[in-house]
Amino acid sequence: MKYHRCEKCNFIQTDDPFWLGEAYNSGAISALDTGILSRNLDLTNKTEEILLKLYSDFSGFKGLDYGGGEGITVRMLRDRGFNFYRYDLYAQNLYAKFFDLNDLPPGIHFNILTAFEVFEHLKDPIEEIEKMFNYSDTILFSTELIPYNSQNDLYDWWYLVPEGGQHISFYDKKTLHTIAGKFHAKFFTNNTNLHILSKNSNLKDPFDISVKQINVQKSYYVRLRDKLRKMVKPRFDKNAHKLESLIQRDFEMVKRKINTNDN
Fold this sequence. Notes:
Layout: E1 3-5, E2 12-14, H1 20-23, H2 36-54, E3 63-66, H3 72-79, E4 84-87, E5 112-116, H4 125-135, E6 138-142, H5 151-154, E7 169-170, H6 173-182, E8 186-189, E9 194-198, H7 209-229, H8 247-262
Parallel strand pairs: 3-4, 3-5, 5-6
Antiparallel strand pairs: 1-2, 2-7, 6-9, 8-9
């Protein structure tokens, strides 16, 4: 397998990936992906922080997890009160049944689209990003930025995972800036693995250092609040922002669906 770098934007891609059918033949989740659960938990935590920075009102909010795999992230986000749905062409929806894009009426526009560990799988990123923007004006995605300048050093990068054959496209900040320009979108990044493309001109940078410092302080008080809740009534934090989990509501809805189908 060979890798080729674009001299204009530093985008790196493999040879034409004729092997993709074989790579996905055993399912979208590779046996090499031993960090799938810890990564989903980490991304859920970070997504929650970002959403609370970007939005103040979640009434009517809808999010779409694009390339959402088996539905782990969607389930965890819904557990925390965020109305997310899943979309994936390759993986079976195991954990977010009835909360799939196919369960919604056509033409739904989402407040935000997440695409975690998707961009490195794309054979034609521009074409796929255009599809994503059809669903939402804001894309929050994860992919590791290329850490090396040398083509030779690239082959030592753990993120290539050539054994799996599924990682075929790689980006650095210049690549993503170029993509943002093509779509006339804003580009924000944490400079490592989380990024945002958005056509919403009013969207603020959730990775901004000053905003991040404020939320570090908030997270401390949130943790303190949770401890105190076990000892006192929560009157002191009645204005604190905490969404009600969708677990019970989802359980009742799925139960009704199953009973209806059985009858």
